[in-house]
Amino acid sequence: MTDTTSALTRRYQDELTVRQQQGLWRQSGDNAVAESWRNFAGNDYLGLAQDPRLVKKAQQHLERWGAGATASPVVSGFTAAHQSLCDQLCDWLGYPQAILFNSGFAANQALLFTLLGKDDALFQDKLNHASLIEAGLLSPATQRRFRHNDMAHLRQLLAKQIQPSASLIVSEGVFSMDGDVSPTESLAAIANQSGALWALDDAHGIGVLGQEGEGSISRGARPDILIVTFGKALGVAGAAVLASPTIIDYLRQFARHYVYSTAMPPAQAALIEDAMRLARTEHWRREILSAHAEQLAQGLQDWLETDSAFEPHSFSTHSLDKQPFPQLLATPSPVKPLIIGDLAALQQVNHALMKAHIRVGAIRPPTVPANTARLRISLSAQHQKTDITALIEALKPVLASDKACGVTA
């Protein structure tokens, strides 16, 4: 049977057609064209990915360590460069041990697949990353999802459990599509009261929150398990899990994503350590992010439906049902969602930005809830004031048009 006539291929073609008809078609961006564009779609929050010093360091590390690790970390792929990175992570974030993974997706999946058994219970925020939700669905544990940042709902779900052997609560430090933060102190208290372990994925908090960029732990509460990634604010790639020696040893022994995968290149590990050093010491990068956020909010306030979007608040997608759009959400992170609501209106706004050679993430369902299609404006310390001004000027006319401002959820 040929590929074009197999039942599986026909099913794929049908589902692809439906996705196109729904206006939800995804495609890779043309990075070659976008090099000369203003980029508000990435996660290079601190502007380190193109830092000339790190580029030079990368070349030096390649010359010293070579291109790859060539083996699993439990065979011969773990080097002094990997150990040094683990040591510096523990020093920075205050944990006794760390274990490295090739991506945040792999770290999250390894964590849930490895630590949970069939008699265990898993509690996840509904807006957790897809890597966590999928791992929860595929793990042997019973997964329960609590409403976004709703601690009362989490307590209710915990109270309904019939003596599970163990429980794990998982949330995020900064939520990638909304830019808001989790109530870490409440999560810590609930975990302590219930006897559950608490894990926090801080992919979008590390580097940008805290005096030295230590992320969400700077807000006071410290999770039992902390996941950090290196491909966003640190500008490189990879991830780490930090926890007690018992948990890290357990992952090292039983996490298949670690045991059966080639280790990250040692040159990469050394480069991450260099990026981490800059993130800790160059405080001006976080100051620039704050200035950019203020400029964006002030520049757009006259073209938005309500000024209340700029007041600090705990964002909930449920609250958007009664709000007029467009709406720029105030967040404590570099992620600034501009909620448009309707897919057609989102496409109109995004098209206007592309004509101005400005790239912004146009986020649609199912990545975000229905009727909350948005521009995910991602600020970077690499941006100049002129970049923020250009974004504001490109948005003004389209936000003022009836097609954009008349949209409701």
UniProtKB/TrEMBL annotation:
<comment type="pathway">
    <text>Cofactor biosynthesis; biotin biosynthesis.</text>
</comment>
<dbReference type="Pfam" id="PF00155">
    <property type="entry name" value="Aminotran_1_2"/>
</dbReference>
<keyword id="KW-0093">Biotin biosynthesis</keyword>
<keyword id="KW-0663">Pyridoxal phosphate</keyword>
<dbReference type="InterPro" id="IPR015421">
    <property type="entry name" value="PyrdxlP-dep_Trfase_major"/>
</dbReference>
<comment type="subunit">
    <text>Homodimer.</text>
</comment>
<dbReference type="InterPro" id="IPR050087">
    <property type="entry name" value="AON_synthase_class-II"/>
</dbReference>
<protein>
    <recommendedName>
        <fullName>8-amino-7-oxononanoate synthase</fullName>
        <ecNumber>2.3.1.47</ecNumber>
    </recommendedName>
</protein>
<keyword id="KW-0808">Transferase</keyword>
<feature type="domain" description="Aminotransferase class I/classII large">
    <location>
        <begin position="39"/>
        <end position="395"/>
    </location>
</feature>
<dbReference type="InterPro" id="IPR004839">
    <property type="entry name" value="Aminotransferase_I/II_large"/>
</dbReference>
<dbReference type="InterPro" id="IPR015424">
    <property type="entry name" value="PyrdxlP-dep_Trfase"/>
</dbReference>
<comment type="similarity">
    <text>Belongs to the class-II pyridoxal-phosphate-dependent aminotransferase family. BioF subfamily.</text>
</comment>
<dbReference type="InterPro" id="IPR001917">
    <property type="entry name" value="Aminotrans_II_pyridoxalP_BS"/>
</dbReference>
<dbReference type="InterPro" id="IPR015422">
    <property type="entry name" value="PyrdxlP-dep_Trfase_small"/>
</dbReference>
